Amino acid sequence: MQSYANRQTKDFWPRIAGEMFQSNRSGLPLAVSSSISAGSLYNFGVVGVVLYLLCMFGSIPSPASDGFEVGPFFLHAYGLSYVVAIVAAMAIGVRRWEAKGGSRDLVSPVALWAIPAGLVGARLYFVLTSWDRVPSQWWGPFAIWTGGLGVWGGIAAGAAVGIWVLHREGANIPLFMDAGAPALLVAQGIGRIGNWFNQELFGGPTSLPWALEIDPFNRPDGYELATTFHPTFLYELIWNFSLAGALVWLGHHRKIRPPGLFALYVAGYSFFRIFEEMLRIDPSHHFFSLRLNFYVAGLLFIAGVAWFIRTQRKSDDIADGTDERQRSVARAQA
Q1: Each residue of 7-54: pLDDT tens digit?
Q2: What is the C-alpha separation between 26 and 15, in angstroms, rounded?
């Protein structure tokens, strides 16, 4: 006979799944949740463990301030989280690149060019797609401390400039991309902590045990009476860390031809964003009742899957990223 605790736990997860789909604007039928078995949710893995622990707190409070005072200076938590994210990404990237036989001296010049390009691309994407949320003052387009970095623009610009540097250095581009994929996910996860301080990136109202408390002046129009919301920033943080761990595991236990891990990073992150965009209620441009980033995520998910399949079907020589220039250098050194 099952214990009372076991029955309660197995009944807990289906209820959670049901409510996860109740408060979004996408019009998903509630019957979707009924198709999720109690057993599959009971074995939800690391995400379930973290969320279950959060239940002990009843709800997640939002920080009273969006930063910290250090002497005469005020440090914005949003910017500080990105500094920590960059440091963590570089440390992970160096370790993984060296493990693949690369030189740590290559990581710094790539980061020196790719990080500023990524920040510019991220802000530019936000300004172009959410121009009505940019402060009207002349400095509005540069006010990244208030939030507003579009991850799609950051990844595209940072990756493009990073690949340019790698090509100029004659490095193994696909291998470097695979080394950096988990590092990027960890950085994106840490960056989401800044959204928590800014009281942004949350979903619809919910009474779940880990619901996020939002101050009245940060609640979107039409949700003034709601007090707690889905912490979608936290969902993404957990997903990013979990996906990063999965990519590391795949790299160690499966023969994935580069840049297959990077392609899975694009597909995996985009897959989650499809779900996240159906929960979020912050202002966004909509097309056919769906948010703009829903379509972007869907297209990138398809592109990432197609890219992964293509890389795994290539010949070993092409997939390993060994170009003629590298072979020439190797022959010259022999």
Answers
A1: 444 444 444 445 444 444 443 333 333 333 344 444 445 555 555 555
A2: 19
Residue 298's beta-bridge partner residues? none
Note whether 67 and 197 are within 8 A (CB).
yes
- Check residues 9 and 206 and name the one with the higher pLDDT: 206
| For residue 215, pLDDT beyond 80 | yes
Chain-centroid distance of CA 196 in Å reads 14
CB atoms within 10 A of CB 74: 12
Round the average pLDDT of the chain to a whole number and report it.
80
Residue 194 tokens read as 């800044």
Structure confidence by residue, pLDDT tens digits, 93-121: 999 999 999 999 999 999 999 999 998 89
DSSP string, 233-302: HHHHHHHHHHHHHHHHHHHHHS---TTHHHHHHHHHHHHHHHHHHHHB-S---EETTEEHHHHHHHHHHH
Compute the distance between CA of residue 226 and CA of residue 229 in angstroms, rounded to an integer. Answer: 8
Instruction: List for the chain the helix, strand, coil content (%; round to 5).
Output: 65, 5, 30
Compute how many other C-beta atoms are within 10 angstroms of the C-beta atom of residue 155: 20
What residue ranges do the domains of the chain occupy?
65-333
| Distance from C-alpha of 154 to C-alpha of 296, rounded to nearest angstrom | 14
Which tokens sit at 314?
């290539």
**Spatial separation of the C-alpha atoms in residues 281 and 203, rounded to whole Å:** 5
- For residue 63, give the nearest of 81, 77, 79, 82 by alpha carbon: 77
Q: Which contiguous run of DSSP H or E holds residue 75?
A: strand 73-76
pTM: predicted TM-score of the whole model, two decimal places? 0.76
Alpha carbon distances (Å) from 315 to 173, 176, 311, 318: 16, 19, 9, 6
